[in-house]
Amino acid sequence: MPRRPPEATAEHVDVLIIGAGLSGIGAAHHLQSAFPHRTYTILEARDTIGGTWDLFRYPGVRSDSDMYTLGYRFRPWAQAKAIADGPSILRYVRDTATEAGIDRHIRFGHRAVHAEWSSEDARWTVEVARDGEPVRLTCGFLYACGGYYRYDAGYTPDLPGIERFGGTVVHPQHWPENLDYTGRKVVVIGSGATAVTLVPALAEQAAHVTMLQRSPTYIAPVSSEDTIANTLRRLLGARRAYPIVRWKNIALGTLTYQLSRRRPHIVKSAIRKAAVRALPPGFDVDAHFTPSYQPWDQRLCAAPDGDLFKAIAKGRASVVTDHVKEFTETGLRLDSGTELDADVVVTATGLRLLALGGIRITVDGRDVKLPETLAYKGMMLSGVPNLAFTIGYTNASWTLKADLVSGYVVRLLRYMDAHGHAQCVPANDDPGVTEHPLIDFQAGYVLRSIDEFPRAGSRPPWRLGMSYAHDVLKLRYGAIDDGSLRFSGAHSSHDAVRRSA
């Protein structure tokens, strides 16, 4: 294929980061701390920093991971609440970017559309849409940190008769600023983390909120504050206390997950007993809060300070387990024949995933089909040079994995500098490796889209790790040249010195 002619207008940077959310800001911090003289730019399709934490603005939006593990390893979380609300998390991300000067490297309103790799030039050419006009940048390394949510639309299943409903229907991903639900009857369709967050928040002002679920979800009451963390912070200061609390919470989270997989009956019993204690006498816990699947087949939902159970106990919220047959003019009719009156219906029915932000990837003139690639260590693609991406844990905080991936990218770039390599590409030469879904998780939002993602392999290094302790050893301390990476090309001696400075 003929070589693309050089373009004088294409700006070049050493590393191009896609996304200015939690992952992208963290990646930039790692990169500039390790390489003060290496150039980088962050492309952000939206007009502000924050990613998911700016996109989701529904009432009560929060994390169900504690901030000692969802927070960055390099920046202590210093607030009293461990389970933080969305605006607090957003400020944390933006403050991190501002204090480190990362915000000066962000191009807002820039959506990466197509990334084309040239082995001859050892660089990526990235086509970007900005206000409908094309922009082109080049880089030596491309780092996709946009997560895997599709931002333009959430998932809404077929809801018969929805067009005849006379009230308001809203999806949490696109919550209108002026929606007034005060004194109104609200039905929230769904039982995942979003619904569990929304119901108690809406119940503070609504006349009544009904959580309508097809099947129950595991919901565990947790304290919104970490007493040990707050005590240690007073005694030791935020910076010294932070790593202690972080590892304490990592250990507890790992223990809970492992116990859920190996002794699920113990975890199921504990969650059920907590629900029985928190709910009114006689409440049918088995019908509404006892799932048919095992704990951590899907992600556990957290109820900070038992807020969902408190709303139910006070009579401000209720749970109905049934299927929607059709919408009526005034609400919903269920398969059981029950009719629910509603002024507002919230379709908390899930998310849609989008692999690598929907960017078209081309290598030496050949379009890369993601499902035909294997994910190396869950962060690089077989046959695709100088590209990394971030997918966080499903069984722990997203940022734990994002921090490890960023640290690995820094180690990889240092290795390439030290050995004069310009290109690095994962290659699978083991015929015994069989393909598996990249994310082994039974949540509906994963199952609907996982076939569009890269594949995982049956053995390391082609598997997406879900154990933080294991990944610390492999990604932070394991060998870079492990036999599955192919290095080639050479920088000029001047370039190598400048990059490693």
Got a strand count? 25
Helical stretch count? Answer: 14
* Proportion of helical residues: 25-40%
From the spread of the alpha carbons, the general shape counts as globular
Q: Please write the CATH class name of the largest domain.
A: Alpha Beta
Q: Quick one: CATH superfamily of the largest domain?
A: FAD/NAD(P)-binding domain
* Termini gap: 36 Å
Low-confidence blocks of residues: 1-8, 491-501
CATH topology descriptor of the largest domain: FAD/NAD(P)-binding domain
Q: Tell me about the largest β-sheet.
A: 9 strands, mixed
Percentage of residues in strands: 15-25%
Radius of gyration (CA) equals 24 Å
How many structurally independent domains?
2
What would you say the CATH architecture of the largest domain is?
3-Layer(bba) Sandwich
The helix/strand class is alpha/beta
Structure overview:
By secondary structure, the protein is an alpha/beta fold. It has 2 domains: 290 residues, 3-Layer(bba) Sandwich (FAD/NAD(P)-binding domain), CATH 3.50.50.60; 186 residues, FAD/NAD(P)-binding domain (3-Layer(bba) Sandwich), CATH 3.50.50. Strands 1, 2, 3, 4, 5, 6, 17, 18 and 21 form a 9-stranded mixed beta sheet that branches. It has a 5-stranded parallel beta sheet with strand order 7-16-8-9-12. Strands 13-14-15 form a 3-stranded antiparallel beta sheet, with no helix packed on it. Strand 5 and strand 6 form a beta hairpin. It is globular, with a radius of gyration of 24 Å. The protein starts with 10 loop residues before the first strand and ends with a helix. Pfam families: FMO-like, NAD_binding_8. Its cofactor is FAD. This is Cation diffusion facilitator CzcD-associated flavoprotein CzcO.
